[in-house]
Amino acid sequence: MIVTRMRPVRDRWDAGWNEYDRMRRDVLRWADAMNRGFFGEPGFRIFPLVNVSQDDENFYVRAELPGVKASDLQLSATGRKLSIAGKRELPEESAKVSYHRKEREGGSFSRSIELTSDFDRDKIDARYQNGILTVTLPRSQSTKPRQIPVKTS
Amino acid sequence: MANEKTHEIQKTEGGTQVEVEQTKSGPVYLPAVDIFEDDSAITLVADMPGVRPNDLRIDLHEGVLTLTGQADTTEPEAETDIFKEYRPGQFCRQFSLSDRIDQDKIEAGMTDGVLRLVLPKAEAQKPRQIKVKTK
User: Fold this and answer.
1) What CA–CA distance (Å, rounded) separates A69 from A37?
2) Same domain for A123 and A138?
3) Which residue of A49, A69, A97 is in closest CB contact with B36?
4) Statement to judge: residues A136 and A79 lie in one domain
């Protein structure tokens, strides 16, 4: 997310390219806003929604995947990238039923997340519970924060 | 969590306004649902990721069905966010039901963050075959 501290001074017309650039940015921002929900979270076109957090030991990637079987999930890690792919299959209901509402969607999905530093690819742990996937990626030794004692003499 | 709603007054599917008490702070999400019906029951399927079976409340009162579930997606405090696309909150949605439901036989199951609610129709509401006699 880009956070601007203050609005830039409106470009003057004689700064031609700047004006073009500003318009381009405005259009992109508008297009982005259209794809977002009320709270500025990404809209429904992005699936699954992902949260990424960290502590001193690990990175945590959590994804909302309701109704996805653990066996239908494929996780892979290459370099600093973690890919989550899979298929959400909605069980077929009997042909006799009539639908009042059909809002849930099934199908294939895939997303990849690039982390800011290296992680230990051999020790990744993934758990699926209550429709939430939690992937724990241990930081590599070299990227773990180290306490540096301050000596006084 | 496709659609969000923060209004304290929620519109029910049937169009009546019903007060929804907000017991916990945080956003209120509208779960995506499938609703289908056959001769014997109405079935409702709702996506509620992060809701444990114990944190779900299902209420049926005067023909209004209310689903409320607290999503347990709060992260441990030691963690700092890098980026966040969903936030802990509450799922809530109301439906007004036209058919009489046999309240004693309602069945609810929650697996992998998906609620499946079977609302059997009361005997009197089931369609009856009427035989036409010919002389």
Assistant:
1) 27
2) yes
3) A97
4) yes
Work out how many domains chain A is built from and give that number. 2
Residue B49 distance to chain A (closest CA, Å) = 5
Per-residue exposure over B61-83, b if at least 16 CB sit within 10 Å of its own CB, e if not:
eeebbbbbbbbebebeeebeeee
| Smallest Cα distance from A70 to chain B, Å | 9
Are A84 and A19 found together in one domain? no
Cβ(B42)–Cβ(A120) below 8 Å: no
* Owning domain of residue A25: 14-41
Read off the pLDDT of each residue in B97-124 and give the average, rounded to a whole number. 87
pLDDT, tens digit, 9 for 90 and up, residues A65-79: 999 999 999 999 999
Residue A137: its chain B contacts at CB < 8 A? Answer: none
Cβ within 8 Å, pair A43-B78: no
A126-141 pLDDT, tens digit per residue, is 999 999 999 999 998 8
CA nearest to A90, candidates A73, A69, A110: A69
Query: Is the CB of residue B51 less than 8 Å from the CB of residue B130?
Result: no
* Distance to chain A for B76, nearest Cα, Å: 10
Average pLDDT over residues B119-130: 77
Both tokens of A125, joined, read: 């742990």
* pLDDT at residue B132, as a whole number: 84
Nearest-Å Rg of the Cα atoms of chain B is: 18
Q: Are residues A115 and A132 in the same domain?
A: yes
pLDDT surpassing 80 at residue A40: no
